[in-house]
């Protein structure tokens, strides 16, 4: 009996030891390989899957010869040199109520900016559709990963981007950026573009190495290009005012000259208007070969600039670089920080000035015009 009790006690002790061993002496987890892979991927792009819609409408013209586009919508009403290696063509089809711009390089369509469209030309989208309407067609993704010239590239959208500037992919390798009005919530413009244009214009945060970049053509006729860009921006802002049912902008040669002078003032002596840390930011943005480093002036900096010319009740926007004026203003118009500046219900005097990739836009209450002119 004693032997039986001793046997049982010994068995219990051995069994307990076997069960407790993993707890007291836990096995070493095989995580070294996973940890190394994780550390190795920190500098790599995370793969993000996304849905692709069937290519329809204007998305089918991206990457195609420009003759194919023009056989459908007619000859351009205007042709502008960008100064960055591509041409901008402006089209207007009053019968089908289509207004758009196209970026053309090497006789191929790289981007189409639809400013007005009929009920069918934007299919599966439509002017005035809401974000809820869009979610019935496709899922809105915050992240995208794709291959560009043997390099994996990642794009990440902010919550604001997803609400007002979502990105939609098509199965022919092209994309569409949809621009929604912050007041009405309706779609008012759509931009179709290829991977290269999407990466060069960088409307979103981009991850990857060896990204394509626009380069300034120093040999271009920039005086003529600057004037053309001023016309493009004025025309676009006037269109947006009409769509918002607001009074037209008031234009005067004097105010345009003042705007141009103020832009020159800043570019010639940025240290007069910027604090040391801001000056360092400007120098980095303006001197780098990368045209994707953006720089804007704050409200206080704009105020100091306009005070020099005694321009009362004047607001403004300075931005560098402006590669594609229309595309840049669609971004600005859907940005909560800038949006309200374009929606003043009182008549506003408009001044637009360009100097290569630098832009200054000033807006002044019309009733102050005569007084400010007398002070010059």
UniProtKB/TrEMBL annotation:
Domain CAP-associated: from-to ranges: 62-204
Pfam families linked: CAP_assoc_N
Protein name in the entry: CAP-associated domain-containing protein
Organism expressing this protein natively: Candidatus Enterococcus mangumiae
Biological classification of the source: Bacteria, Bacillati, Bacillota, Bacilli, Lactobacillales
């Amino acid at each position: 009996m004693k032997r039986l009790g001793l046997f049982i006690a010994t068995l219990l002790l051995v069994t307990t030891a076997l069960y407790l061993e993993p707890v007291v002496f836990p096995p070493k987890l095989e995580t070294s390989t996973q940890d190394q892979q994780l550390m190795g991927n920190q500098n790599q792009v995370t793969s993000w899957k996304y849905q692709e819609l069937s290519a329809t409408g204007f998305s089918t013209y991206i990457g195609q010869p420009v003759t194919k586009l023009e056989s459908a919508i007619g000859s351009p009403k205007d042709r502008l040199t960008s100064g960055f290696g591509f041409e901008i063509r402006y089209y207007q089809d009053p019968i089908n109520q289509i207004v758009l711009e196209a970026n053309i390089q090497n006789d191929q369509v790289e981007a189409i900016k639809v400013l007005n469209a009929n009920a069918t030309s934007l299919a599966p989208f439509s002017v005035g559709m809401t974000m809820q309407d869009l979610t019935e067609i496709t899922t809105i993704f915050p992240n995208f990963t794709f291959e560009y010239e043997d390099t994996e590239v990642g794009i990440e959208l902010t919550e604001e981007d997803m609400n007002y500037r979502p990105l939609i992919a098509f199965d022919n390798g092209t994309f569409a950026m949809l621009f929604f009005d912050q007041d009405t919530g309706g779609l008012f413009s759509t931009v179709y573009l290829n991977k290269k244009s999407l990466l060069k214009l960088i409307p979103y945060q981009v991850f990857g190495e060896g990204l394509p970049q626009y380069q300034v053509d120093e040999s271009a006729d920039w005086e003529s290009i600057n004037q053309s860009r001023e016309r493009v921006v004025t025309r676009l802002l006037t269109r947006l005012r009409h769509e918002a049912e607001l009074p037209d902008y008031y234009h005067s040669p004097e105010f345009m000259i003042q705007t141009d002078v103020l832009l020159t003032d800043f570019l010639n002596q940025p240290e007069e208007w910027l604090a040391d840390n801001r000056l360092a930011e400007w120098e980095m943005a303006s001197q780098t070969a990368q045209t994707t480093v953006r720089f804007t002036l704050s409200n206080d900096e704009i105020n100091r600039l306009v005070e020099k010319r005694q321009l009362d009740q004047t607001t403004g926007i300075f931005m560098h670089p402006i590669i594609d004026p229309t595309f840049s203003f669609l971004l600005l118009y859907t940005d909560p920080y800038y949006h309200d500046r374009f929606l003043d219900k009182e008549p506003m005097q408009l001044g637009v000035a360009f100097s290569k990739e630098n832009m200054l836009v000033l807006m002044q209450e019309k009733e102050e015009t005569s007084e400010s002119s007398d002070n010059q």
